[in-house]
Automatic annotation (TrEMBL):
Signal peptide: none annotated. This is Putative lysine N-acyltransferase C17G9.06c. InterPro entries: Acyl_CoA_acyltransferase, Acyltransferase_MbtK/IucB-like. Residues 210-259 form the Acyltransferase MbtK/IucB-like conserved domain. Belongs to the lysine N-acyltransferase MbtK family.
Length: 338
């Protein structure tokens, strides 16, 4: 009976005045994805799954290119070979699979979310977590939500569904160990800073920081005290006023290649460490035979004198930070620990 009803709905839809539909995709559960064929550029395209309209998209009167090289130089936007594509405004994430098929000759598809989407900020963060889109400024904090274009990448097609929250169907069967997150795909990216020029894979978003204003203030005060001690300054060279250290932490939190962490021993603040992606770090040139794509590094300081020593440092670093480095890495290759 259900199949008969679907066929009748398809017939009715095909006979509806002013609408021409075409099949663009069949999902893993054998449901079809159809789109309307607009009569002019101003008309929105409807997307239907199983004969039910799930969203629409429209082409905006502007085109953009995904710039991922020569960042921070006078040549950042001068390359003629980088193709520009029209920006699409989408009303639902359900239309994205259709976009990958309709625009199958494009390596990137620039989109923005329609203002009518009530949970636009949440949805943007969700899409970035899946690595569906890259934003058009790779140096930005990846969780920062703006109205800038997001670029759908062809490499992330398989990551698009099968994830809890918005989708229940997809080709990838997500392991329960990943807690509903699809494996992060390989997408080429670049970093350019005063100390680093490197190509590397796009990194997964970092977990958000935790703590109220009082906790953050306490952590900053400890960080400031430690860096003004002779013991820490000999290794880190960051002695200075608290404004300098506030800016240091702000930059570390904004850097997609650095995960800053505070260390405690029995609830007492002990030190600070940074888990880094080596390729985007200033130590990369010193790695014998060169850093690999998924090599991780660890910069550590133990600021409290009474908590220093091999026993405590080893206890903190090995089971905690190394476990985090391993499980936050990538399925593409086993990372080295540097």
């Amino acid at each position: 009976m259900d199949n008969a009803n679907r066929r009748l709905q398809a017939i009715q839809r095909s006979l509806a005045p002013g609408s021409e539909w075409r099949r663009v995709l069949v999902l893993p559960d054998n449901l079809g994805v159809d789109v309307t064929v607009p009569k002019d550029a101003q008309e929105a395209t409807q997307v239907a799954i199983d004969n039910k309209v799930v969203g629409l998209y429209r082409t905006l009167p502007r085109s953009v290119a995904l710039v991922i090289s020569a960042l921070g130089t006078p040549h950042e936007n001068t390359a003629d070979h980088v193709p520009k594509f029209p920006v699409l405004e989408i009303s639902s994430p359900s239309v994205i699979y259709a976009l990958h098929t309709v625009y199958h000759v494009q390596e990137t598809i620039p989109i923005i979310l329609s203002p009518s989407i009530q949970n636009g900020s949440e949805l943007t963060e969700y899409l970035i977590t899946l690595a569906w889109p890259a934003d058009n400024n790779p140096s930005n904090v990846r969780a920062k939500v703006t109205q800038k274009e997001l670029f759908l990448m062809r490499e992330t097609f398989w990551q698009g569904a099968g994830t809890s929250g918005y989708h229940t169907r997809g080709w990838l069967r997500v392991s329960t160990a990943l807690k509903g997150r699809a494996p992060f795909p390989y997408v080429q990216s670049f970093t350019r800073t005063d100390l680093v020029i490197a190509s590397h894979p796009l990194r997964p978003p970092k977990p958000p920081g935790r703590g109220d204003d009082e906790t953050v203030g306490r952590h900053l005060a400890a960080f400031h005290k430690w860096h003004n001690s002779d013991h820490v300054n000999r290794g880190w060279g960051e002695r200075g006023p608290i404004e300098k250290h506030r800016e240091y932490i702000k930059n570390a939190m904004a850097d997609p290649a650095v995960q800053p962490l505070m260390m405690s021993w029995d609830g007492e603040l002990m030190g600070y460490c940074e888990i880094v992606w080596i390729k985007e770090n200033h130590v990369a040139p010193y790695v014998p035979e060169g850093a690999r794509d998924y090599d991780r590094g660890l910069h550590v300081l133990v600021g409290e004198e009474k908590l220093r020593g091999t026993l405590r440092s080893t206890t903190c670093q090995r089971p905690k930070t190394k476990r985090y480095q391993y499980f936050s890495g990538s399925p593409h290759e086993c990372p080295n620990d540097i």
